[in-house]
Design brief:
The chain is of the alpha/beta class. It has one domain: 3-Layer(aba) Sandwich (Rossmann fold), CATH 3.40.50.1820. Helices cover 33% and strands 20% of the residues. Helix 6 links the parallel strand 9 and strand 10. Helix 2 packs across helix 3.
Length: 257
């Protein structure tokens, strides 16, 4: 069962601004706890809707943590406030990057995972803007630091991005190729990207380009799945792919009944 946990006063210390995060929803594992994954919702959504979907997946060994983003003015909506992991002017890798907002949300994810037991594998995934934040977290993990230079200390085991894009794509190559350690971490981190060819919110070409950039910068353990006719939403076929991939990557026990 899931329960609600308020994250009071959870402003990030990695940035100048303080971001107040909403309610966090946790889905407890129904079987042996082997992995914990933070799952990030899309623009204007909240953690509750995804916690209900994730609770019904045949993955009894995973604990899901579904936080809710802060409400903030968003440029793509003309400054109108809504729940968002960072400010965004367009839903693609071509717009300006809100490094401060991205760092704050990546730090929030890392903070949620920091209290998990050492023998539990941890990961991050998300949909749309949540996927963008998850992929940004993957690049922070590889570099061992946030965009502002502060250390990133979480050792991610898996990263999933559904219908999303890669922030800071333009500068990623120099950051990864300039460090042997970053290149090694990038090569060993499993990533799953899924995108619908009928997506009219985050265009399929942005998901495809993100996968290409990640692969070319050293994220060799990357799987990119496409779905004909799929719009900006998820379908059972896609979630089946997520379940199979997680079961394999995390070596989960008893995930299929």
């Amino acid at each position: 069962m899931s329960y609600n946990r308020a994250t009071a006063g959870s402003g990030s210390r990695t940035t100048g601004r303080s971001f107040e995060y909403g309610r966090t929803h946790v889905v407890r594992p129904k079987g042996k706890h082997q992995a914990t994954i933070v799952w990030l919702h899309g623009l204007g959504d909240n953690g509750s809707s995804w916690s209900q979907l994730l609770e019904n997946l045949p993955l009894p060994n995973i604990k899901w943590i579904c936080p809710t983003a802060p409400s903030r003015p968003v440029a793509i909506f003309g400054g109108f406030p809504c729940t968002a992991w960072f400010d965004v002017g367009e839903l693609s890798e071509d717009g300006p990057d809100d490094i401060e907002g991205l760092d704050a949300s990546a730090a929030h994810v890392a903070n949620l995972l920091s209290t998990e037991p050492n023998d539990i594998k941890v990961g991050v995934g998300g949909f749309s803007m949540g996927a963008a934040t998850a992929l940004y977290s993957a690049t922070c993990c590889a570099q061992g630091k946030y965009g502002n230079g502060n250390r990133y200390t979480i050792d991610l085991s898996v990263v999933i991005g559904l219908s999303g894009w890669l922030p800071c794509a333009r500068s990623l190559r120099n950051k990864i190729e300039g460090s042997h350690e970053a290149a090694r971490r990038a090569a060993s981190l499993p990533l799953l990207l899924c995108h619908g060819k009928g997506d009219d919110v985050v265009q399929y070409t942005h998901g495809e380009k993100s996968a290409t950039v990640l692969s070319s910068t050293g994220f060799r353990n990357l799987t990119f799945r496409t779905y004909n006719g799929l719009g900006h939403y998820t379908v059972p076929q896609e979630m089946d792919e997520v379940c199979s991939w997680l079961t394999l990557c995390l070596n989960l026990e008893g995930s299929r009944s």
